[in-house]
Amino acid sequence: MDTSKQYIKMSDCPEIQDGWKPETGDLTTAGIITGIHFKNIGVLIRDKTDWINLYSVKTIKWLPYQHQSQGMLIKKGVWFDLQISGGGHTQLILLFEGGKRKKFTSDTAEQALMQGVMHELHNKKWDGQGWV
């Protein structure tokens, strides 16, 4: 699982964070959610020994797993192929009717999938620093 600064930066955008519905097992910048407790004040996650209120601690970010990003593409009806090369790069190929393709290459599968999600769902492109 990619927990690099680059992937955290890519995931830290309203398009991804605002659509998150926390579940046990989700990966965040604070760690993996090991339990969820619902109260009137919002969703709390149990990380290590303390409960953390996700609505009051805005520095905690969700880092989607590959299957979660793939699910976003599938829900939109996008067909794709994920290829991992021996050179350590991952290529996401989006497949469209008529044989058209769109390719995204990145260091990790998570980053390539995030590029595909942002392109297809939000019409944004990663410029190396942010989404434009």
> What are the low-pLDDT stretches, counting only 5+ consecutive residues below 50?
none
Helical stretch tally: 4
Strand order of the largest sheet: 3-4-5
Largest sheet: 3 strands, antiparallel
Rounded to the nearest angstrom, the radius of gyration is 16 Å
For the record, give the distance between the C-alpha atoms at the N and C termini, rounded to a whole number.
25 Å
In CATH terms, what is the fold-level topology of the domain at 65-127?
Double Stranded RNA Binding Domain
So, CATH architecture of the domain at 65-127? Answer: 2-Layer Sandwich
What structural category do the secondary elements indicate? alpha+beta
Could you walk me through the main structural features you see in this protein, from its secondary elements to its overall organization?
This protein is α+β, with helices and mostly antiparallel strands and 132 residues long. The chain has a domain at 65-127: Double Stranded RNA Binding Domain (2-Layer Sandwich). 27% of the residues lie in helices and 27% in strands. The protein has four helices and eight strands, in the order ααβββββαβββα. The chain has helices at residues 5-11, 14-17, 66-76, 109-122; strands spanning 27-28, 31-32, 36-39, 42-47, 50-53, 79-84, 90-95, 101-106. The protein has a three-stranded antiparallel beta sheet, with no helix packed on it. A three-stranded antiparallel beta sheet has the order 6-7-8, covered by helices on one side. Helix 1 runs parallel beside helix 4. The longest helix is centred in the C-terminal third of the chain and has 14 residues, at 109-122. The chain is elongated, with a radius of gyration of 16 Å. The model has no long low-confidence stretch (mean pLDDT 84).
